[in-house]
Amino acid sequence: MSIMQLLFGNQVAVIIWVGAIVFFLSYLYSEKIIRFFYARTLGQREELFLILDKMYVDTDRRKLMISIVLISFGAGLVFFLAFWPNVIPGLLFGTVATLAGWSAPKLILKGMWEKRCNRIVDQMVDGMTIMANSIGAGLSVPQAMERVTENMSGPLTQEFTLALNQMRLGRSVEEALNEFGDRIPRPDVQMFVSGVNILKETGGNLAETFATITVTIRERQKIERRIEAMTSQSIWQAIIVTCVPFGLLLMFLMGDPTFVMPLFTRPLGWLALFFMLGLQAMGGLLMKKIVTIKV
Questions:
Q1: Can you tell me the distance from the alpha carbon of 180 to that of 158, in angstroms, rounded to the nearest whole number?
Q2: Domain 118-220, what fold?
């Protein structure tokens, strides 16, 4: 009997050596493992609530956490039952699905937050133009911001309205704008906040500064759109290459299930399937890093 047959020939042998490996790794890296699972589950609560607060979304935190728990453990239960009575792959893929269910809300909210920040930066062009004209007409910075809120809509108006409300409650322009810069961590927003704060202390032409910021943002957007056009083909190639193995697996399941069923019924197939998914995830992340170019 070969070593491969001894290790993967029956489910009992797999349970023994997999359990031994898990016990050994858990003993050596117990603290790191606990921190990893906590960071992927309950540790994400405050970050989720912070993102929702930044987007001005009022939600019941208790109901949100209950929904995430039900979704994550529900997905894990579905995968576990899909592999039943094969307990090992069910537990393995059920755990992965549970962690993915915990991570999905954070990824979705972060994507929505990034889109909101990008939209604010896009609106900064029109907003800075209005502010430059208002400053040139003799208005102050808060009055110029009010002109923006009166003539525009969208997330930039929400941020300016919050800053103006803080100023009306007694906070200085510098403090209100600094909080605006902290909420929207974008270089163009930081440039606007720093320009206003510095010129209020040292003096200078605010209208000319806003016009310069507008030109800078427009040039940056031109470069970003050019990069998006150049990398769009590579992005779609990465998506297609990542989806091809799953498409082939689905075709085999529909055409000749007996050809691929050992992947789901035998220990060696479980191991091959697990490594395949891991390599697919690594390849997808590497291709994403390659085609992501920050300006």
A1: 11
A2: Receptor-associated Protein (1.20.81)
pLDDT tens per residue, range 94-132: 777 887 777 788 888 888 888 888 888 888 888 888 888
**Closest Cα to residue 141, out of 174, 169, 117, 171?**
174
Cα 36–chain centre separation? 18
21 CB-near residues (< 8 Å, 6+ apart): none
Token code pair at residue 13 = 């042998």
Task: Give yes or no for a contact between 161 and 147, defined as CB atoms under 8 angstroms apart.
Answer: no
Helices 206-255 & 267-291 angle (0-180, nearest 10):
150
Looking at residue 267, its amino acid is: P
CB–CB of 94/80 below 8 Å?
A: yes
> Which sequence spans correspond to the domains of the chain?
1-40, 118-220
**184 DSSP assignment:** S
Q: Distance between CA 49 and CA 251 in Å, rounded?
A: 42
12, 277, 115, 161 alpha-carbon torsion, rounded to 10°: 20
Summarised one tens digit per residue, pLDDT across range 223-262 is 878 877 777 777 787 788 888 888 887 888 787 778 777 7
Closest CA to 196 of 181, 185, 182: 181
Say which DSSP state 42 is in: G
Contacts of 288 (CB under 8 A, 6+ apart): 238
User: How big is the CA angle at 96 (ends 90 and 100), to the nearest 5 degrees?
Assistant: 135
